[in-house]
């Protein structure tokens, strides 16, 4: 690409004194005015809660930064307010990542609720209207991360998050989770008997999200729907053909809706069942490669069993800080990315530091042809290259 355009551009400069850009036609005329497509030739860079390593999670600032840093997808957790507005917020309560404690006018809203098998005391989004939540400001979850943005950014809605992705200067996908659906449906009611999952899909449709994985519609507005609750995935399966990812928790956690164990939901029989609803799984990375005393152990066979069924594997969560890096990675996040991408062979990575993953991928597998042609052609070229590799 560089070679192709440098020569004519230099020639043109002989004739045009000022900016030659409006006269010089880039090779892909049909993409004139359209956005740079989603790359599909290397594992997806999924910006976990935005670039939350730098900014308070799930804020406009975190998402804009992630887009600037090269995210393929911006990721979020969708829950609801008392009046049924879908918002981006990870926890069902507001205590850790907002300034709710400073709002004395809401002091009487403190509650204890049973959430996914445990009791939590705090301030819950389901007890506040959207108007009330707009008066809060977010803060950084971890004390060892930058605190200077605390109190600056509001919570955003699902629709605002979608708008951030659609307004990006290149095609940026969304990766929303139907979060804690059992709890949300227990506390929030929508008109006409609709449930949380229905309203979630309606919102995606309202903004034009549709189509199966790698279809033309999908490549225009890429989206993965994710959930830990298999019944939510099954419920939305006949409402949208957007690709779905089944999230898998730690080995000790039971599914919130069907009360199944880790070994049940990762069995061959279960993967055979769920594969008709999903294009992949999203496991916690330490369940794929167990860790003892901060040393990684032999990888489990889950990645191989998923790939054998043509299921993608998008593990979570990659974090740069020393306390999250296992000893074999020598406190170097690039060694961790190299291990997961090149040894384990995952298809997408949820990272708190989009910029680091992007830099690693640009250095080790830079985009060349594929960033100038549409995603489906890139995908085909990638498949062909892989096939040729076998005959070398
Ligand atoms: C939560 O608290 C309620 C009321 O005290 C109690 O009945 C219930 O067993 C508790 N649930 C758990 C999971 O501890
Ligand atoms: C989806 O299937 C359920 C039953 O599993 C049915 O009640 C519902 O009407 C279906 N929805 C659509 C949009 O087809
Ligand atoms: C969930 O399953 C566990 C055993 O795996 C059982 O002890 C527990 O009572 C079950 N909970 C519910 C709500 O059915």
UniProtKB/TrEMBL annotation:
What does the record give as EC number?
Answer: 3.1.4.46
Q: Which GO terms describe its cellular component?
A: vacuole
What family, per the record? Belongs to the glycerophosphoryl diester phosphodiesterase family.
Hydrolase: present as a keyword of the record?
A: yes
Q: Which SUPFAM superfamilies match?
A: PLC-like phosphodiesterases
Organism of derivation: Chenopodium quinoa
Q: Which residues form the GP-PDE domain?
A: 43-361
Sorted alphabetically, the Gene Ontology BP terms of this entry are: glycerol metabolic process; lipid metabolic process
This protein's name: glycerophosphodiester phosphodiesterase
MF terms (GO), sorted A to Z: glycerophosphodiester phosphodiesterase activity
